[in-house]
C-alpha cells in the first residue's frame, strides 16, 4: 500500500466518521435545542401549528417570570437545596460504593457472594414499591422534611457498588501485594493506591449519581412539604396546573436546571477525552 | 512466603470492615422497606383503613389478571429491544468517539450525553410535541417514508415511540461506561496485536471485547435492571396508554398503589417483578463470571 | 484538603437549616393544588389569616393536582403533619368513608350550630362538592363548577354556520363538528371536537353525562353496578362517543392530547370539559374570548334532560389536625374571597361570610363570566352526577379502557362493552 493511497483511505474514513457523528450529535441534541428555543416563545406559540421553530415574538420575560411572577416558587432557594442535597448524596454514595466495591472485589470472606447478591437485589425492586414503607420509616426516625431525609435514601444505589466492584476486579494485584510487603495497612492501600487508580470509574459514578439525584422527583414530593426545602424538580412540576400550564416558564426552568449538570459533566469529562488507545483503526 | 503468615483471617476481617457501612445503610433504608413491602403483599391495604390479612389471595388474583399479564409482556418487549439497542449503540459510539481520527471528542460525547441530564418532565414535554401528528417526527416520517404512524395514539406504534425516546435518553449514560472501560485497556495489548499484523476487526473481537468483559457485564446487567424498572418515561409521555400498550410493570405497580389504593396487590406485583430480576441477575452473574476474588 | 473544607461548610449549612426550620409558633399545614392564576389569591388569604392570628403560621403546601391525592394519602398513613386538605368530590368518598376528616365544628366559624355554617353556602352546594357523607357535613366548598359545551364561533362563521346552528342533539353535534374539521395534506390540523386523549377521567366525565342522559345511574355506586346489566344502553352510549373518532372522524387524538389547550389554541372547534373558570384560562391562549361561545350539552332526542357533569371541591380538616377549631377558622378565611376568584372565573357558592357580609356577588359573576345567566346557571340545575364511590378511580379506569380499546385498538364496541362488564364485576367483588 503506497503512502498516498494510505493517507487517502484514512482521510476518507475520517470523513465518514465525522459525518455520521455530526448527524448523530445533532439528532441527540436537537430536542434540547427545541426546548431552549421554545422557552423564549409566548405560551400560545409553543403549541401553535404549523410548528414554528423560531419564536415569532421573542419572550425573554419567561426567564424573568420564573424568578418574579410566582411568589410561592422561590427558585433560587430550590436550586440551593438541590445543590446541597445532590452534593452530599453524591459524596456519601462515593464513599459507600468505593468501600463496598473494594471490599467485595478484593477480599475473600465468607458470604461475599451472598452479601453482594443481597446488595444487588436492592435495585431489583422498583422505588415506587418501597416508597410508602420508606416514608413511614423516615418519619419515625424524625427525618421527614429535612435535608438528611432526602440525602440518605438518595445516596444509596447498588449500581454504584456494582460498578466499583467491576472496576476493582481489573485492578492488578501486584501493586497491592508490593504495598503489603512494604507494610502498608489495608486502609492506606485503599486510599493511596486503589482509589487513585479507579479515578475514571469514580468520576463516571459522580456524573451518573449526580444526574439521578438532581432530577429525582417522587421521593422529595412525598417527603418534603416545607416549601423552603423543596428541590428543583418539585419546582418544575409545580408548573403543571390542573387547568393551565405556562410552558415557556416551565421550559425556561428546565433549561436552567440543566446548566449545573452540564457544567459538572464538561468539567469532569476532560478525563474521558483522552480517547481509547486502539491503534487498529489505521487499517 | 510472607503471604501465608498474615493472609486469611486478616484479609477476611478487612473485607467485612469495608463492606460494613454499605450493609448498614442498605439494611436500614432499603432492605427493611423492601421486606416491609413484601410482607404487604399478603395483605389488603388502602393506607387509610387497617391492614387486612388475606394470605396468598393477591397472587391468585394476579395470575388471572389480564392487566398484570399484559404489563408483564409489555415489559419484556420494551426491555429486550431497548437493552439490545442501547448496548449496541453505546458500544459503537464509544469506539467511534474514541477514534484517533476524530477531534472535538469532548464536544461530540457531550452532545450524546446531554439527554441523560435533562429532567424527565422536560423530556416528556418536548417529545410529546414531536410525536403529535403535526409534530416534528411525524413531519419527518411523512417526508421520508410518505406516511407516519400515529405515534402516541395507536396501541401498535406507542411502544416503539417510547423505546426511541428511552434509547435516546439512555445511550449517553452507557456510552460513558464503555468509554471508561475502554480507557483501562492497556495500550500494550494493542501494540502486541498490531505487531502480529492484526487489522481493525480482528483487534475488536480478539483484543478489545475480551479485555472489557467486566465492563460489558456491568453495562448489560445494569441496563437490563434499569430498563426493567423504567417508569418515568412512560408515566410522563403516555401514562401507560394508549389502551395500556405502554403500561410496563413498574407503572402498573404505581397505579395499583397510588391510583387505586390497592397497596397489597401492588406489593404482590412488585414481588413478582423482583423475583424475575433476581433469577435473571443470578443467571447473568454466573454467565459473565466476572473474575474470582483476588484476580 | 479543600474537599474537606468544602464538606464541612456544607454540613454547617445543613445544620443551620435545621434551626431555620424549627419555629415557636403554632403551625397549620394545608395540602392544596397549585394553579398559577389562583395561587396569589390563596397566598393572600394566608397573609390575612396570619395577620389576625400572629401566633399562627399557615403552611399552604401547593402540589401538582395529579399528585395531590397520593401525597395526602401517604402523609395521612404515616401520621405525618397534615392539618387540612383539599379534595374534589371524586376524591372525597374514599377519605370520608375511612374517617380521615373531622366533621364541621361551628366554633371555627363563630357560629353555634352546624346548620348555621351550612346556611352560609348555597343550598345543596356542600353535597355537590363532596363535603357531605353519611349524615354529617365535613367540608366547606372551595369551587363549584359544571361542564358545558364550548364552540369556536369564528370557525363556525368560516363554515357558514350561525348561532342558530348550535347543536341541540348529539346528531346535530356530529354534523356541526364535521363542518369544523380542517384537513391539510391528509393530516387533520383542526378537530371538529376533541377530548383529552391521555387522561381517562375527562373522557369518563363526558361519557358519564351521556350515559345518564340515556337513563343509567352513574352517579351512585349501586347505580353504576346495576347499569352493567343494560348491555344495549351501554353499547349505545359507548358507540356514540367512540364514533367521534372511528366513523364520524371529527376527532383525531393524535393532533393534541389536551382538549383545553387544544381548543384554546385553535386546534379544535368544540370541547366539552370546561366550566366557568375556563374564561380565565382562555386568556392565556391564542383564541380570543369574542370567538368563543359556551352552550348547553347536547342531549339525545329520546334521552333525559341532563347537562354536563357537575363537580366541585371542598376544604377539610384532617383527623391529624392538632387544633381542629383553629384549622376550621383558617379554612373559613381561605374560602372568604369569592369575589376575588370570580374575576378569574372560579365560582365559589358562598352566600354569606362568617362576619355577616355578603359572599359571592352575583352581579360580579355576570360581569366576569360571559353567558353566566344564559348557559351556566341553567345547566347547573341539571348536572349529571360524578360517580360517588370508594372505588371511583378503578371504575374510571375501566370505562377509559373500554373507550381506549375501541379508539386505539380497533376493538368492536360490543366486545369492549363485554370486557367492561367483566372488569366492573371484578372491581366491586372484593
The best one-word shape of chain B is flat
Strand order of the largest sheet of chain B: 1-2
Give a quick account of the main beta sheet of chain B: strands, pairing sense, barrel closure: 2 strands, antiparallel
Assembly type: heterotrimer
Distance between the termini of chain B: 19 Å
Uncertain parts of chain B: 1-5, 291-295
In short:
The complex is a heterotrimer of chains A (283), B (295) and C (430). With 283 residues, chain A is mainly alpha-helical.
Polypeptide structure, described:
- The complex is a heterotrimer of chains A (283), B (295) and C (430).
- Chain A is mainly alpha-helical.
- Chain A has helices at residues 3-38, 43-46, 61-68, 75-106, 112-121, 127-140, 147-155, 158-169, 173-181, 186-197, 199-214, 218-223, 232-237, 247-269.
- The model of chain A is unreliable at 273-283 (pLDDT under 50).
- Chain B has a two-stranded antiparallel sheet.
- Mean pLDDT of chain B is 84; it is low at 1-5 and 291-295.
- The longest helix of chain C has 20 residues, at 2-21.
- In chain C, the strands form three sheets. In chain C, strands 1, 2, 3, 6, 12 and 13 form a six-stranded mixed beta sheet that branches. In chain C, strands 8-9-10-7-11 form a five-stranded mixed beta sheet. A two-stranded antiparallel sheet of chain C has the order 4-5.
- Chain C starts with a helix and ends with a helix.
- Chain C is built from 19 helices and 13 strands.
- In chain C, α11 packs across α19 and α18 (392-409) packs antiparallel against α19.
- With 430 residues, chain C is α/β, with parallel strands linked by helices.
- Chains in contact: A-B, A-C, B-C.
- Chains B and C meet through α12 of B and α3, β9 and α18 of C.
Amino acid at each position: 500500500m503506497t503512502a498516498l493511497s494510505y493517507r487517502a483511505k484514512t482521510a476518507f474514513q475520517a470523513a465518514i466518521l465525522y459525518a455520521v457523528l455530526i448527524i448523530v450529535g445533532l439528532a441527540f441534541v436537537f430536542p434540547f435545542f427545541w426546548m431552549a428555543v421554545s422557552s423564549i416563545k409566548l405560551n400560545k406559540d409553543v403549541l401553535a401549528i404549523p410548528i414554528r421553530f423560531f419564536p415569532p415574538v421573542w419572550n425573554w420575560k419567561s426567564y424573568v417570570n420564573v424568578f418574579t411572577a410566582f411568589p410561592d416558587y422561590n427558585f433560587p432557594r430550590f436550586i440551593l437545596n438541590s445543590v446541597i442535597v445532590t452534593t452530599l448524596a453524591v459524596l456519601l454514595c462515593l464513599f459507600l460504593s468505593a468501600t463496598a466495591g473494594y471490599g467485595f472485589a478484593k477480599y475473600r470472606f465468607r458470604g461475599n457472594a451472598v452479601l453482594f447478591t443481597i446488595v444487588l437485589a436492592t435495585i431489583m425492586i422498583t422505588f415506587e414499591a418501597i416508597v410508602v414503607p420508606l416514608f413511614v420509616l423516615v418519619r419515625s426516625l424524625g427525618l421527614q422534611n429535612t435535608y438528611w431525609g432526602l440525602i440518605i435514601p438518595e445516596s444509596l444505589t447498588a449500581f454504584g457498588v456494582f460498578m466499583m466492584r467491576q472496576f476493582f476486579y481489573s485492578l492488578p494485584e501486584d501493586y497491592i501485594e508490593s504495598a503489603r510487603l512494604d507494610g502498608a495497612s489495608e486502609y492506606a492501600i485503599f486510599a493511596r493506591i486503589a482509589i487513585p487508580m479507579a479515578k475514571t470509574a469514580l468520576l463516571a459514578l459522580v456524573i451518573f449519581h449526580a444526574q439521578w439525584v438532581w432530577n429525582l422527583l417522587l421521593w422529595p414530593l412525598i417527603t418534603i412539604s416545607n416549601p423552603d426545602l423543596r428541590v428543583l424538580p418539585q419546582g418544575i412540576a409545580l408548573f403543571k396546573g390542573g387547568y393551565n400550564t405556562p410552558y415557556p416558564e416551565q421550559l425556561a426552568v428546565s433549561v436552567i436546571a440543566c446548566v449545573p449538570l452540564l457544567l459538572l459533566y464538561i468539567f469532569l469529562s476532560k478525563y474521558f477525552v483522552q480517547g481509547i488507545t486502539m491503534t487498529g483503526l489505521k487499517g | 512466603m510472607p503471604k501465608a503468615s498474615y493472609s486469611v483471617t486478616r484479609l477476611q476481617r478487612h473485607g467485612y470492615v469495608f463492606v460494613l457501612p454499605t450493609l448498614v445503610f442498605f439494611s436500614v433504608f432499603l432492605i427493611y422497606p423492601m421486606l416491609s413491602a413484601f410482607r404487604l403483599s399478603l395483605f389488603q391495604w388502602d393506607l387509610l383503613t387497617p391492614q387486612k390479612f388475606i394470605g396468598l389471595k393477591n397472587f391468585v388474583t394476579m395470575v388471572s389478571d389480564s392487566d398484570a399479564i399484559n404489563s408483564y409482556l409489555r415489559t419484556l418487549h420494551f426491555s429486550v429491544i431497548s437493552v439490545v439497542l442501547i448496548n449496541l449503540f453505546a458500544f459503537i459510539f464509544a469506539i467511534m468517539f474514541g477514534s484517533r481520527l476524530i477531534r472535538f471528542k469532548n464536544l461530540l460525547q457531550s452532545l450524546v450525553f446531554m439527554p441523560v441530564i435533562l429532567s424527565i418532565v422536560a423530556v416528556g414535554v418536548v417529545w410529546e410535541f414531536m410525536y403529535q401528528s403535526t409534530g416534528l417526527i411525524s413531519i419527518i416520517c411523512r417526508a421520508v417514508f410518505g406516511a407516519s404512524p400515529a405515534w402516541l395514539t395507536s396501541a401498535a406504534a406507542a411502544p416503539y415511540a417510547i423505546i426511541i425516546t428511552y434509547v435516546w435518553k439512555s445511550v449517553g449514560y452507557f456510552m460513558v461506561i464503555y468509554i471508561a472501560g475502554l480507557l483501562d485497556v492497556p495500550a500494550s495489548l494493542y501494540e502486541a496485536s498490531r505487531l502480529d499484523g492484526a487489522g481493525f476487526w480482528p483487534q475488536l473481537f480478539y483484543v478489545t471485547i475480551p479485555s472489557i468483559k467486566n465492563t460489558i457485564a456491568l453495562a448489560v446487567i445494569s441496563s437490563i435492571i434499569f430498563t426493567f424498572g423504567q417508569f418515568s418515561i412512560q408515566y410522563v409521555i403516555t401514562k401507560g396508554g394508549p389502551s395500556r400498550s405502554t403500561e410496563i410493570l413498574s407503572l402498573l405497580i404505581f397505579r395499583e398503589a397510588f391510583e387505586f389504593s390497592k397497596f397489597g396487590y401492588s406489593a404482590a406485583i412488585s414481588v413478582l417483578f423482583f423475583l424475575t430480576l433476581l433469577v435473571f441477575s443470578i443467571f447473568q452473574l454466573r454467565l459473565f463470571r466476572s473474575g474470582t476474588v483476588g484476580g | 484538603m479543600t474537599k474537606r473544607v468544602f464538606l464541612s461548610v456544607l454540613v454547617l449549612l445543613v445544620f443551620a437549616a435545621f434551626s431555620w426550620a424549627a419555629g415557636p409558633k403554632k403551625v397549620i399545614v394545608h395540602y392544596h393544588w397549585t394553579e398559577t392564576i389562583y395561587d396569589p389569591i390563596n397566598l393572600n388569604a394566608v397573609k390575612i389569616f396570619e395577620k389576625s392570628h400572629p401566633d399562627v403560621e399557615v403552611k399552604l403546601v401547593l402540589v401538582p393536582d395529579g399528585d395531590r391525592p397520593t401525597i395526602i394519602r401517604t402523609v395521612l398513613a404515616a401520621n405525618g403533619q397534615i392539618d387540612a386538605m383539599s379534595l374534589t368530590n371524586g376524591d372525597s368518598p374514599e377519605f370520608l368513608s375511612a374517617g380521615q376528616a373531622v366533621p364541621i365544628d361551628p366554633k371555627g366559624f363563630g357560629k353555634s350550630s352546624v346548620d348555621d355554617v351550612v346556611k352560609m353556602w348555597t343550598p345543596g352546594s356542600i353535597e355537590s362538592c363532596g363535603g357531605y357523607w353519611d349524615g354529617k357535613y365535613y367540608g366547606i366548598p372551595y369551587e363549584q363548577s359544571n361542564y358545558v359545551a364550548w364552540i369556536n364561533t369564528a370557525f363556525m362563521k368560516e363554515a357558514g354556520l350561525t348561532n342558530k346552528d348550535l347543536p341541540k342533539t348529539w346528531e346535530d353535534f356530529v354534523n356541526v363538528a364535521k363542518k369544523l374539521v380542517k384537513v391539510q395534506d391528509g393530516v387533520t390540523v383542526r378537530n371538529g371536537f376533541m377530548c383529552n386523549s391521555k387522561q381517562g377521567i375527562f373522557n369518563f366525565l363526558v361519557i358519564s353525562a351521556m350515559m345518564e342522559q340515556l337513563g343509567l345511574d352513574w352517579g351512585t355506586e349501586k347505580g353504576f353496578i346495576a347499569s352493567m346489566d343494560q348491555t344495549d344502553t351501554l353499547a349505545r352510549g359507548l358507540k356514540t362517543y367512540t364514533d367521534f373518532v372511528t366513523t364520524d372522524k371529527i376527532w383525531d387524538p393524535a393532533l393534541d392530547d389536551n382538549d383545553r389547550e387544544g381548543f384554546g389554541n385553535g386546534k379544535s372547534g368544540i370541547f366539552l370539559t370546561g366550566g366557568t373558570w375556563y374564561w380565565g384560562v382562555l386568556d392565556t391562549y391564542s383564541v380570543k374570548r369574542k370567538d368563543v361561545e359556551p352552550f348547553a350539552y347536547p342531549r339525545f332526542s329520546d334521552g333525559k334532560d341532563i347537562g354536563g357533569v357537575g363537580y366541585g371541591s371542598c376544604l377539610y380538616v384532617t383527623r391529624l389536625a392538632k387544633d381542629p377549631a383553629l384549622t376550621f377558622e383558617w379554612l373559613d378565611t381561605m374560602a372568604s374571597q369569592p369575589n376575588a376568584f370570580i374575576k378569574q372565573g372560579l365560582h365559589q357558592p358562598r352566600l354569606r361570610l362568617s362576619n355577616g357580609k355578603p359572599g359571592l356577588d352575583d352581579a360580579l359573576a355576570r360581569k366576569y363570566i360571559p353567558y353566566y345567566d344564559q348557559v351556566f346557571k341553567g345547566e347547573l340545575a341539571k348536572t349529571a352526577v360524578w360517580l360517588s364511590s370508594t372505588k371511583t378511580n378503578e371504575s374510571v379506569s375501566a370505562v377509559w379502557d373500554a373507550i381506549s380499546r375501541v379508539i386505539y385498538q380497533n376493538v368492536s364496541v360490543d366486545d369492549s362493552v363485554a370486557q367492561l362488564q367483566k372488569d366492573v364485576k371484578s372491581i366491586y367483588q372484593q
